[in-house]
Amino acid sequence: MYYIDLGRVFLVSKPFLIIQLRPENEVADEELRALLEHGGLASEEVVRLRAERDGVPTVDLDAYAGIIVGGSPFDVSTPDEEKSEIQKRVETDFQLLLTEVDERDFPFLGCCSGNGLLGVYCGTQISRRFGEPVGPADISLTDAGKTDPLLAGLPDRFTVLLGHKEACDSIPPGATLLATGERCPVQMFRIKTNIYATQFHPEGDAQGFTVRIHAYKHHGYFPEEDAQRLIEVVSAQPVPESNQILKRFVERYRLTP
């Protein structure tokens, strides 16, 4: 079966929509590489949308198997008067998109910034109270997490890669908490059956984080002089369980002819 979108022909029934929010081309390209690699996705199985450049146009959910949203230097907790016009547009567009995703319980995985956008939509407070430095961190599965399809069979506690200034202050209303951490209590949650968010980066790996550390060393995530040390730390820390979450999401919702 062929599927045609934006002038391209796919040899799969429906592709995944990958929405990116990173203004830096090198970082965005590297994030896409990691999402494809660790998700087990071929390039012809995805449609890429650079929302930080084009906003989020009306999305026909029937055209896609699922949506994956990456990270961003944008912080939703930034006062509105300090936000750029494109950030305001992205946040407004996402509220419309998430309304339909929620109504249909459509497969969705929001990673880091995608987590914050989903949290805001659900009505939870996002602040800098539970920010975490760039690097590895251990998370623990809740009882609900241990039986969730994306997490079942993984160790009760494992290491992920992350780095964020803001996070959900509490579990979003109506959400199921799947994973928590000592420094940041809301590390992964699910809305209904198919809508997921992670505060960490399930696509994260040493190659991708090295590019991000270089790109964001002036953005306040860590002292600039710590950049090389952080690169060495993430290079020594594989995160197979975290990457498995992304792969399981794709495998669960991938539609084949």
Q: What is the average per-residue confidence, as pLDDT, rounded to a whole number?
A: 91
The amount of beta strand, in percent, is: 15-25%
Strands of the largest sheet, in order across it? 4-3-5-6-13-12-11-8-9
Helical content band: 25-40%
> What shape does the CA trace take?
globular
| Secondary structure: number of strands | 13
Number of helical stretches of at least 4 residues: 8
pLDDT under 50 segments (min length 5)?
Answer: 1-11
What's the order of the H and E elements?
EEEHEHEHEHEEHEEEEEHHH
- Biggest beta sheet attributes: 9 strands, mixed
For the record, give the distance between the C-alpha atoms at the N and C termini, rounded to a whole number.
6 Å
What's the alpha carbon Rg, rounded to whole Å? 17 Å
> What structural class do the secondary elements suggest?
alpha/beta
Summed up:
With 257 residues, this protein is α/β, with parallel strands linked by helices.
Task: Describe the protein.
It is a single chain. Strands 4-3-5-6-13-12-11-8-9 form a nine-stranded mixed β-sheet, with helices on both faces. Strands 1-2 form a two-stranded antiparallel ribbon. It has a two-stranded antiparallel ribbon with strand order 7-10. The protein has helices at 25-39, 51-54, 85-104, 113-122, 143-147, 206-215, 227-235, 240-253, and strands at 3-5, 8-10, 16-20, 46-50, 66-69, 108-111, 126-127, 132-141, 157-164, 167-168, 175-181, 188-191, 195-198. It contains eight helices and 13 strands. Helix 1 packs antiparallel against helix 6 (206-215) and helix 6 (206-215) packs antiparallel against helix 7. With 257 residues, it is α/β, with parallel strands linked by helices.
